[in-house]
Amino acid sequence: MRNLILISAMMLAVARCCAQQPDILLADFEGKDYGSWKTTGEAFGPGPAQGTLPKQMEVSGYLGHGLVNSYFGGDKSIGTLTSPTFKIERKFITFLIGGGGWANETCMNSLVDGKVVRTATGPNTKPGGSEMLMPAAWDVTKFAGRAATIVIVDERKDGWGHINVDHIAQSDERGNIPLASKVEPTPPPAPERTRAVRIAGDFLQLPLMQHTSADKKYARVGLEKLSIEADGKLLRYMNVDLAKDSQRPDFWYSADMREFKGREVTLRIKSHDAAALDHLEFSDEEIIDPHAYDGPNRPRFHFSPRLGWMNDINGSYYQNGLYHIFYQFNPACIGTGAGFDMHWGHSVSQDLVHWEEWPVALFPNDAGQCYSGTTVLQQQPIPSLNEGNKLPAPAIFMAGTTPFSQHLATTSDGGRTWKRFAGNPVVPNMGNGDRDPKVIWHQASRHYVMVLYVGGKEAGYHFLRSKDLIHWEQTCVLPNWFECPEFIPMKSAITGEDLMLLYGCYRTPKDALEQINIKSGYQLGRFDGKTFTPITKLRSAHLGPNFYAALVFQNEPKDRPVMMGWAAGTQFPGEPFNQCASVPLLLQMKAINGEDTLCFEPAEELNTLRGKPLIKLSHATTAEANTKLATLAKDSPLDVVVRLRPAATVGLNLNLRNITFNYEPATKTLKRGSQATVLHPGASLDVRFLIDCGIVESFWNGGEAAYSIASLQTDIGPAFAIEGDAMIEELTVYPITNIWASREKR
Question: Where are the domains of the chain?
Fold first, then answer.
């Protein structure tokens, strides 16, 4: 019996050995070109890469000398690489893969009958990572004998926007090679639903499910475009996830329909729910959650919207006793990356610190989304733009996206409602993604001046001018400037000369010899109404990292350059909104180390929120200070003001929550993580911290260095502590009033 079992095992092993067939190599990419594989776009270059491409991290893990590497031209290049048709003759397709991990964007797909049946990506979606290729396999047993093709895809232009592939083969054994993901069957497309209806109320009441995904690529999953149309024209649209009968809405959004009240319209959406539109109702009452501002993670003194996503600050101005801010706004989604369906949210304040939400100013329509822009005060009467308005009167400029072009809107009721100019766009498409127009009145040349970001061949800030806000001519181009310009008068602290401050983002092309990427930068220069001529070098301004897309208030009553920015990347778990703004900041040009230096400090209005000091010390040691500081509650909003004299040779750490600032007195270098900047204090160093739910802002040496940092009150670390040897000349800790505690409808 024992011999019989042994003989049977031997026969089975022989049978398996005979059944196993040799691998079939589909491609090893060792040739000078791709042979019978076909390319589109530029990402895959003229042929296989011979390893690492220029400005790429070291690529490893491939076999031989060549591989597919779509980093040709950098992450911005896109394209596809498609195999010839082949017959599936083995159980598995094995391969090596690396690079970007973006589904549908940086991937390799196997197609049968023209449909994607298997897919794989690299591992990387975040900064860092590795360019190493790793083995992977597809189980294609069920497709045996079928014709197939392989398509390698690079459709992503941002970080990790490339794919690496090598040695594709068919095999009956995969050993320990892991299986890549299967592609689930695509559900049938949702049918289109329509409903003809008369707008019988001020608001369309939308029962919505919330989208809170932390991953940008999933932010739109489950959303469908709800359109409102009339006479063949798209009046409004939003991408929404309407709650079904079986679902309790996560929240209600009252979409403002007052502009079209009484009109016959058609509602349109694609949905598997046949009754998706039938339950939608109009009413004159706006549904507002009375507890929306009471959440434990909402900032207590930083502006945030009642609900939805916000990003760039737009069109800030002052008139008739009110400060106005607009902001990029998506009321129907709070997921990270919800920067689509851009509206212009609108809030006002009498004192720069307490804010009241006003109606949305601009909505997506047939001109596309409402991207960032500015408000300018009209100086002269302009037919069809400001009849009956007392001058100066505000006018909005914003970027429409279908196609990218610049649009104008005005108000006749003090900013509560805005009407688009019938002759839009006033600046047609000029390049690639034209956006973020900044418009000012230039008194010396008696012209309006627009600074506009334009991408493409002449990427940079384009200067235009106009007499009437409608007809514009281009006057100059400054290369390498990117997005969100600000352009304001500023006096040199060194010479006293009246100059212009150009502020914004700056980044050089990837093939430039000197690589510069500044999210907040500036230059001083002279401006003759047509051409801006810098007279200072490019310098970093606000050091972020959670600060972007900032504008100053036009027509500021105290004639101050007061700026608010988007605190980009802040997070507020469990709240009905996402992202917030910085506090209002006073911009000052100071002479520091022989240079004109742009400094940021909190506007004086923030001081009105201070309560009675919790701690007040002078001429204390760090140990004495820390004894007092240890009594502070981590969830309390605080204003901490410190002036200290560090020991000459010992480094100093200021710690709060998960944040550490290190100051080295010997070199006068301030460090936060990998960031380092040299300060120029006298014998003493002053610093101010504004500590809030989800965000901390700090200002060093009179604003020479300014930071805005995402930080939750639940993060590990102390409320505030000082580590090292220093004389604390003054330390005052104030509690800060909750700006939402006494809201009143104005």
Answer: 2-171, 192-211+223-283, 292-602, 610-735
Backbone angles phi, psi at 466, to 5 degrees: -155, 150
Q: Which amino acid is at 419?
A: K
CA–centroid distance for 271 within its chain = 29
| Alpha carbon distance 642, 686 (integer Å) | 6
- Rounded Cα distance between 389 and 252, Å, is 36
Altogether, the residues listed in the chain come to a count of 746
- Can you tell me the distance from the alpha carbon of 697 to that of 682, in angstroms, rounded to the nearest whole number? 23
DSSP 244: P
pLDDT along the chain (746 residues), means of 10: 38 43 95 94 95 91 95 92 97 96 92 92 86 95 96 91 97 92 69 96 94 55 90 95 89 96 97 91 95 96 96 97 97 80 97 97 97 93 75 94 96 93 96 96 96 94 96 97 97 98 94 89 98 97 97 97 97 94 98 97 98 97 96 96 90 94 96 94 96 98 98 94 95 98 58
637: tokens are 């909003």
Q: Is 303 exposed, middle or buried (0-12, 13-18, 19+ CB in 10 A)?
A: buried
**Contact between residue 633 and residue 736 where contact means Cβ atoms under 8 Å apart:** no
Residue type at 122 in one-letter notation: G
CATH topology of domain 2-171: Jelly Rolls (2.60.120)
- Fold agreement between 2-171 and 292-602: no
Both structure tokens of 247: 């679902």
Sign of the CA dihedral with 381 first, then 387, 393, and 398 last: negative
> How many H helices and E strands in the chain?
2, 54
Amino acid at 453: Y
CA distance 544 to 69: 34
Cα distance between residue 333 and residue 160, in whole Å: 26
DSSP sequence for 516-551: -EEEEEEEEEEE-SS-EEE-S--EE----BS-EEEE
- Of 640, 668, 667, the C-alpha closest to 655 is 640
Q: Give dist(CA 726, CA 658) in Å, integer.
A: 22
Bridge partners of 734, per DSSP, are: 639
Name the class of domain 610-735.
mainly beta
What is the architecture of the domain spanning 292-602? 5 Propeller (2.115)
Asked whether the beta carbons of 307 and 351 are under 8 A apart, the reply is no
Asked if residues 239 and 330 have their Cβ atoms less than 8 Å apart, the reply is no
Q: Which helix (H) or strand (E) holds 225?
A: strand 224-230
CA-nearest of 316, 376, 362, 326 to 346 is: 326
| Torsion (CA) 407, 413, 417, 423 in degrees, nearest 10 | -30
DSSP 460-498: EEEEEEESSSSS-EEEEEEETEEEEEEEEEEE-TTT--E
